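Appendix B. One record, verbatim.
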Amino acid sequence: MEKYLIEVPHDATDLACLNAVRIFMQTGSHFLRKAEWGCHDGEHKAWLIVEVENKDEARQIVPSLFRPDAKIVKLHTYSREEMENIRKFHTV
């Protein structure tokens, strides 16, 4: 399993916030029910960290209405050895 950060933006209106939260909660998905929201701080996005097989599986967690704008980022915790050889992971 791999770990992914899912970022799901929505419009910055009261109605958009209400609808986004409602849609997430009504899916019944344990992933979506645990989303973290930034609306109270003016950042109209939801974030989830999930462990799934691949990026496509992570995207499928997002309700279809929000999928086109969702950002999926594979997360990685570096070991000491990897940190010492970090240049191998970057082309610049």
